[in-house]
Amino acid sequence: MSGKTLTLRTIPVLGWVFLMYGVLRASRAQPLRHPLLRVVWWIDAFLSIVVHAAQIPSAVRRGDRLGHSRIRTALLTLVFGLTWWKTQTNRSRGSSMKVLVTGASGFLGGRLARRLVEDGGNDVSVLVRRTSNLQDLGDLSQLSLVYGDLTDKDSLEAATRGIDVVFHSAARVDECGVRSQFVAENVDATEHLLTSAKANGVSRFVFISSPSALMEYDGGDQLNIDESVPYPKRYLNYYSETKALAEQAVLDANEPGFVTCALRPRAIWGPGDRSGPIVRLLGRANTGALPDLSGGRQVLASLCHVDNIVDAAVKASRSDNVGGLAYFIADDEVTDIWPFMAETARDFGITPPTRKPNPRVVSAAVTAIELIWKIPLLANRYSPPLSRYVLALLTRSSTFDTGAARRDFGYTPVVDRDAGLADFKTWVQAQGGVAELTRDLK
Fold it and tell me: CA 255, 92, 24: angle at the middle one, nearest 5?
C-alpha cells in the first residue's frame, strides 16, 4: 500500500475520530471549549456529509452496498452535528444551566444557591461537607448536594463534572489559624477547583473575592478607589494575602471557552447573616464590650447587602465582558461606620458604644497581641481578641467606585439601605434578638 493511499484512508478516519470525540463531550455536557476547535469540528462535519452524500447516487446506481453505508454515515453525521449544536445552543441561552456553588452552607453561598433555584432553569449543585449545617438553605429537595471538601482534589473533580458555571464563595475567613491553613483553604483549594473546572469543560467561573485583598499592612484610607489600584507590597493579614493570591489565580486562568472573573464585596450584610461584621459588632455592643475606635474621625465604608452581591454574581456569570477582570461591588450608599452602628444599636434597643480609648494605646495593644498570637498553640485554637485587620476595618475609610461593574454587566443595587435594614431587623427578631443570634459567636 502506497504512502499516498494510506494518507487518503487515514484522513477520513481521523476526521471521524474527531467527530466522535466532539459528540462524546457533548453527550457529557462538556462541549469543546476553544472556539477554534468548534470551528474545525463544524468544518469536519460539513465535509463528512458532503463527501459521503456526493458518492451516494453513483453507489446506489451500481447497487453497491457501500451506497447504503454512505447514506447511514451521512445521516449519522447530520444527527451528531445537530445534537452537538443543540447542546451548545442550550448552554449559550442559559437553559438548563448546571451550576455549582461552593460555600453554600454560609451566608452568601446559601443565598446565592437559593436565588439560582428561584430564577428557574438552573440545575443547582452545592459543595458541602457531611458535617455542614444546612438549615438556612431551605428546601434541599431543589438542590443537588455534592459532598466534598475544598482541600480534597478528588471531590472537586467529581463536583465539577457536567457543570457549566462555578460560583466559588467558600473561603477561610476566621483569623484563627496559621498561614499554611489559609494557603491550603484559600489559594490551593481555588487552584484545584480551577484545574478541575477546566478539565471538566466548565465555561464560566465566578470568584467571590474581597477588597481586603488590597489592604496594606501600614495603609491608610482608600476613598472611591477603582480596580486600577495595585495589590499591596505587604498584606494586612493571612486572609488578605491569600485572598489576593487566589484572586490572581482566578484572573490568570481566563482563556477562550473558560471565562473567569472576581467580585469584591465588603462587609456583606442582610437577613441570614449570623456571623458577619455588623452582627459581631452588634453582639459586642449588646454585652458592652464594643468601644468606639474611631478616634474622633469619620470612618466611611462601602458596605454590600447580600442581595446586591448575589445579583451581581448572577449578572457577571452571563456577561461576555468580564473575562480576566475583578470588580468592586457595593451598595449605593456610603456609610459613616460609627454613627451607623450607634443608630442600628438603638434600633435593637442596645446602648451605643461610648468608651473611646486612646488610639495609640489600642495600636500598642494590637502589636502586643500580634506577637503573642505567633505562638501556634494559640493561633490554631483561638481568634485574637483584637487584630490589626479588625482595627483597620473599623478605623480606615474604604469606599469603592462600582462603575466598571455597571458598565460591563449592568450592575445596579437591587436593595437600598433602608429596605435592607428593615428586613434585617425583622429577621434578627425572628431569631430571638441580637443576644440569641450572637450567643455562640467567638
Answer: 80
